[in-house]
Design goal:
Length: 103
C-alpha cells in the first residue's frame, strides 16, 4: 500500500481473488471456514487502526533521523495513509466494504 496510484490495481486484484476464493477451509477439523471477505475486513480494520493519529514525527524519530530522512519518512507515511484510504474507498465502490464497516 505504499503507492496510492496502484489503488485501482490492488482493488481489482482483491475483487478477482474474492470471486475465485470465497472461502478458505481451516486446517483443523471442526473449525469454521474463513471467508475471504472476513479476512479482508479484519486486515483493513487492523491497518486502519495502525494509522498514526498525527503525521508529525515523534520525538524518537526526530532524534533518530536527519531532517532529510524525516521528510522522506513523513512523505512515505502520508502516501501509505492515502493509499489505504483510497483502497478502502475503491473496495466500497466495488461493494466489498459496507458503510457500516467504514462509518
Amino acid at each position: 500500500l505504499a503507492k496510492p496510484h496502484l489503488g485501482n490495481a490492488y482493488s481489482n486484484m482483491i475483487h478477482a481473488l474474492h470471486k475465485r476464493y470465497p472461502e478458505f477451509p481451516l486446517k483443523h477439523d471442526g473449525g469454521k471456514a474463513q471467508t475471504f471477505h472476513r479476512i479482508l475486513l479484519n486486515t483493513c480494520q487492523a491497518e486502519f487502526e495502525a494509522v498514526p493519529t498525527s503525521l508529525s514525527p515523534t520525538q524518537e524519530e526526530k532524534r533518530k533521523h536527519s531532517r532529510d530522512q524525516l521528510r522522506l519518512l513523513m512523505s512515505e507515511r502520508k502516501d501509505r495513509i492515502h493509499a489505504l484510504m483510497k483502497l478502502i474507498g475503491l473496495l466500497f465502490i466495488k461493494k466489498m466494504m459496507a458503510v457500516k464497516a467504514i462509518g
